[in-house]
Amino acid sequence: MAEAWTLFALMAVTTAVIRASGPVVLGGRELPRRATAVVALLAPALLAALVMTETFRGEGTGLIVDERALGVAGAGAVMLARGSIVVALAVAMALTAGSRALL
Q: Can you give the pTM of this predicted structure?
């Protein structure tokens, strides 16, 4: 348990250092437009990568397609139809839980 809290503290300190390094390095200057555009795209790309790895990751290099994939597909369909994130989460939860109950 102590190892987990040590890791948590280390991650918090690392995050603080990374976040503070931006203003220190830039010194009050604005980022170029191209760099700002890349930074704006990082969060959605990282979120998509996290969702995909947590949904389809198997043992080793394996790929698993199970009930979670149906939930992700349902949430994706809601987002493509311009639905809200709350509706997408509800659809993903309902599809995943429903398919687990049936299978």
A: 0.60
